[in-house]
Amino acid sequence: MSGAPINPAAPRNSQYGVDPKYIVKRGADLEGMTSVLLNELIPDMPPVIYPNGRGPSVIKEETERALATVDFSKIKPGHRVNILASHHGFTFLGGEPYAEMLRTIKDVVMSETGAREVRLRAGLGMRFRETEEYIKAHGLDDYFEGKALGIAPIDAGIPIETKLGTLYGLRKAYDGDVIIHAHNSDVREVHFHRQVDRAVKPFGMSYARCETRSTYHMNLGPRGANFVARSIFESDFVQDKYGFSVFMIMSPQGVVNVDADNDLYALNDRTTVGGMKYYGKIISLFGEIDGCIAVLDFPCPVPYVFAAGVIYANMINANIDLFDLDNPLPPYTWYTETFYDHRGRPLIPEIPPVNPAIKMVVHNYAWTGYPAVFFAEQTPTIVVGEEQAKHFDRDPMNLNYMKHALLARELNAAMAFAYETTGTDKVIIFDGAMGGLNVSSSLAELLLKVAPSVCDRVENTLIPKWLDQRDIDASLLGAIP
Amino acid sequence: MKVVDVHASVNEDLCKGCKTCEMVCPVYAITVGKREKKFKVEINHKRCVGCWNCEQRCPEHAVEMKPCDPYIIGTDVSQFDYNEIEALCRKARFHPKQLVCYCSGSRAEELAAAILSGAKTPDALVLATGVGAGCGIECNQPILRFLESAGLSFERRKQSFQWLGRTITVWEVPSKLKEDFPVFRFEEDRQLFDRIINASVEP
Ligand code: SF4
Ligand code: SF4
Fold first, then answer.
1. Is B168 exposed, middle or buried, given 0-12, 13-18 or 19+ CB atoms closer than 10 A?
2. B43 lines ligand 2 (CB under 6 A)
3. What digits encode the pLDDT tens for the residues A261-273?
C-alpha cells in the first residue's frame, strides 16, 4: 500500500546552502512518486511523542519527567553550569524539539540547584557558524540571557590527559564548574561510531579540538577510534566536571522519549540497544535495494540528507552491515576515503565499494560545509542548478566536487538523463519526509515485498549478534519502548 | 594542491580587536594591532590560503572573503627521487598515494615532497601544499606526523590557537588497553593500516 508523496522538509536559509528561492522543484513533485509509511514497512516502530500534534510542550514535560530521576547534588548555587549541545540535534524535525529540551534543562537546573549561571555551549562539525544559526533561529540567545555560544574545533583548546595520552578539548566547553551532556540517540553516523559508545562520541568530537578529531578520523582506525571519546570522558579533568546526561531518544519516526542519567554508560547501553532496534531494520532494508536513482533534497551536507529518518551515508554504506563489528571497513568513512589512490583505485583489494545499487545521484538540494568530493567521485552525480554548482565551487571543502559532477539546469532534465542512462525506474528521495519515505512506485513495491523478511532477520539473527559483539545484555531490549 | 581564489579582507569599522582571526589562522597571515584609537588588522595576502577560518570565527562578522586572481599552491612531487618520498611516507606511516586532505585532494607524497623542499613547520606545510586550507580539521594529525617523522620539531606560537600537538596513533596504543577493551579492535585496525601502508605504489 502506498500513498501520495509526503511533504518534504522545507529549504532553509543558511550561509551553507543556496538561497531557498533557487529550489524551484522538489523530488517529491516528480511524476510517478509515491510514499511508503514506516509503519507499513516496520510494524513494530515505537510510538513517538513528537510529532504528535501537541507541539513542543510535550518535550518539556518529558524532559522534566526524565530529569526527576537525576541527582543534581554536584551543582551548587554559585556554580557556572555548561549545557553541552551538538548541531545534529537541531537537524531533527525542524530543531524545535531539541531546542525545547535544552531550554527545559536550563529551567530545571536553575530551579533544582539555585545555580544562576547556566550557559549553552553548542558544538558543531565543520560549518563553524552552524550552531550560531540554530541558536538565533530558536531564540536560545535570549533564553540563555546572551550566554549561548557556538563552539568550533579551531577555537581555543585545553589539553586533557587521557588513557590515550594528551588529547585536546575546547576550552569554552569546559569553562564551567559542571557540564551537562545534552545529546540525541539517532544512529546516523554509524559508519564512524559503529554503535560503540555512541552516546559518548561528542566528547571526542563536538566538544573537542581539531587535533582530537583528526586523531579520531586519521590516527586510530575505523573501530579503535571510538576509544577517543571514552578516554576523554573518563579523564580526571572531565569526570571532575561531569554532572549528568540528557538525551532526546530518536526513532526514524520522531522523538520516542527523553532519557537522563548520571551514569552515561548506563544511558549508552540503552541508546545502543534502542539504536539497533529502531534503526537496524530500516538501514538493513536499504541494503535490499538492488538498483536506484538517489535524489538528494534536504538542507544538510550531502551525506546527512535524510530519508525515512536515516541519512544518505547509511544508504551509501547499505551494502555492508555496519553494526557487525567483524566488518572492518565501511564503504564510506574518512578512513576508506583515504584508501583510494590518485587514479581512484583501492590501495588494497579488500576496500569495499560504495553501495553499487546507487546507479546515479541527482543532487537537487544539499549543502556545502562538508568535504563531499568522494561521493561525486564514486557515484555518477548530476547537480541541479547553476547557483548550486557555483555554491560548491566557492566552498574550500568542495573545490573539486563539480569536477566530478554534471550540471543540469533543472530537475526534470536531470531525472530524464538519469532514467535514460541507468535504465532503472526506482527512485529514492532523501528529503526529510516525516513518518515515511518518498519513492517511485517501483521501489515502493520492492520495499513492501522484502520488508517482512528483513525485519525477521534483524530481529532474530542480527540484533543478538550485534549485542553479543558489544557485550550488552540482551534483556535490555525488553526495557526500552 | 589547492587553487586559492579568495582572500580575507577586514572591515575595520566593525572590528573590536578581539584577535580571534589572528588566533585561528593556520598560516599566521593576520596581525591585529591598534592605530589612532582604531583597530588595525593586517592581512598578508602572500600568505592567506583562503581557508575562511577568520571569516567563520570573527564574532563581529568583520571579515569578508573577496575573490582574487586564482593561483595554485602545491609542491611538485616529481622533482624528487621517489624512493626518498616513499621512505618518508612510510616513516610517517602513510601510503604515498594515500589521501591526507579531503578538501585539497592532496596525497601523502605531496607532504613528503614539501618537507624535502624545505618546509619545517605546520604553517609552511600548509603554504606549500594547500593541505589544511579547507576544513582545517582532519589533516591536522597527518601534518604533525610528517613533521615528526622527518625529525622536525617546531615551537608553538603563543599568539595562536593552532597546532597544539601530535597525538596517539594505532601503533602506539598500549597493549593493556587492547586487552582491556577488545570491542574497539585496535589490533585488527592496526593490521588493516599496515596492509595499506605496505601496499605497492602503482603508477
Ligand atoms: S576576529 Fe573580527 S573583531 Fe576580532 S580582531 Fe579579527 S576582525 Fe577584529
Ligand atoms: S582566510 Fe585563512 S589563511 Fe586567509 S587570513 Fe583568514 S584564516 Fe588566514
1. buried
2. yes
3. 999 999 999 999 9
